[in-house]
Each structure stands twice: as C-alpha cells, then as structure tokens.
Amino acid sequence: xxLRTALALAAVxxxxxxxxxxxxxxxxxxxxxxxxxxxPTDAVGRVVAQGLGETLGQPVVIENVGGAGGMTGASRVAxxxxxxxxxxxxxxxxxxxxxxxxxxxxxxxxxxxxPVALLTEQASVLIARKDLPANSLSEFIRQAKQSGAxxxxxxxxxxxxxxxxxxxxxxxxxxxxxxPYRGAAPAMQDMIGGRIDYMCDLVPDAVGHIRAGDVKAIAxxxxxxxxxxxxxxxxxxxxxxxxxxxxxxxxxLPKGVADAIVQKLAAAAGAAVDSAxxxxxxxxxxxxxxxxxxxGSDYLARFIGEEHAKWAAPIRASGITVN
Length: 323
Fold this sequence. Notes:
The chain is of the alpha/beta class. It has helices spanning 3-23, 40-56, 71-78, 92-101, 137-147, 160-172, 184-192, 203-212, 259-274, 276-284, 297-318, and strands spanning 29-33, 60-64, 86-91, 113-122, 124-129, 151-154, 177-180, 198-202, 215-221, 247-254, 288-289. The longest helix has 22 residues, at 297-318.
C-alpha cells in the first residue's frame, strides 16, 4: 500500500467514524447499574434511564451487574467496545472507593473511562441515638474526643455509611469504635435501641426516623442543607468545613469513545434530569439534581480527581483494605 493510499484510507475511516458519532444512537443503549435490582442505586438509575431514552429516542435498557462493591459492573463497561452503546451509571463506590480499598482494582477509574456527566447527589447526615447528650456538632465533637467509649455503626466495611463517618472522625481527631453490620437497617435498629452511639446515613434513609424522633440529627455532611431536612445545619455551618460525604451518580463511557458521542450523551442526560417528570421522581427518592455548571464531562473529570484526593487520606490512615 502506497503512502497516498494509506492516507486516503485513513481519511475515509475518519469520516466514517464522524458520521457514526453524528448518527448515534442507532440502536438501544445498555446502561450498566453495578448493583442489584431493587436497591437505591438501581432506583435512581431507572429514573435516569427512562428520561434519557425519551430524550435520545432510543430505549435505554438497565443491566444489573452486581459484585465487588460495584466493581464487577464497572469493569464490564471499562472493557466494552467504545461505540457509545454501553454506559455506566457509576458513583463514588465504583469510581473512588474501590480504587482506594481494593489492593488490585479491576480497572483504573481515571484512565479507563470517558467521563460524561455528573447528574445526581444525596447528602449524608450525622445522626445519633436520641438520648445522646450532644445536641449540636460542637457538643458531639467534645463528647467524641473526651468519651473514649463511643461507637458508630455502618452497613459494612468500605460502605458509604462507614467512609462518611471515617471522614468525620478524622476531621475531628476522634478515635471511635466501628461496628459494621450487614446493611444500614440493622445498624439503624441498634442505634435506636441505644447499642451504638451514631452513624452517618444518607438523608433519604434517615429522614423518617429523624421525623419520628427515633434518632436525632446532628449535622448534614454536604455543602448545603438538605431540602428535606431544612432545619438541620451543615457541618460547615457549625464550624467544621470540608466534611462533605455526598453520594453521587454520573454517566461514564469506555475510554476511546468519540467525543461527539460523549457530548451528545451529556446534553441528553442534562435535558433528561431537567425535565419536570424526572425531577419529580428523583425528588420522591430524596435525590437532588446537580446544577448545570457541574454536569459537564470536563467538570466530572476534575471532580473524580478531587474526590480521590479527599478520600485517599482517611481511607489510608484507617488501614482498611479489601482483597
């Protein structure tokens, strides 16, 4: 093959790729939700998938691929063909925590994916047994540092509920006993029963118990107050900035996908979460839609780096690892 022929062929292939990206999608898209069907991630993913399908004009089919804290499903997307037909509904567990907890992750979250769009987030809240003497964050910090006998519960080692409290404990300089459970529900029941002192739960999961008076809310661990707990001040408002443990979700494609597909999917995802129907359904799940200026692929790439840096120190300081 002559050089002129090779260059001509390359030009034809490039034009063909551009046309393919421009026409995308031409068939149903598979959205991998890396957790079991029926769980909180699946619930949010299905709302987003329906809105996205309506916006793109092609069905977006959910494929639940659980295992290894979400890493199995994320790996499926990382190694998929970069044609835009398989997308990951990923979040902190898949893109941050697994990278720091596992000794040998199945992928590199910062190099094996093309970030598309940050879409939703849920705040965590510090809650305590109702008879704990502390009623404010400053009182809680004082008790945690002086007691020497406090304990906190979580839904398991490496879970969002565990790592949120790990971040909090590191920020206040308190050594507290961790009691892991098989899920957040039994941890909540033991706190209601007074067998553990506190936990860091997602606001939608905790709000019913807070309103019923089963537990007390101390601080929202997010940049702003939660719309469904407007009277609970953030940690920053109470003098402890930087302790933010939002559970977030976004879309990721395999690396190497055409930028035109990334941008088209990002625009469609933004339009989907801005629709009144999708927002109403997400609001019913206690989920907030991120502001438009935080949705872009460039922002998501920076956000991943920032989140990795934020969580690396407390996780490594704790010494916890997963084989």
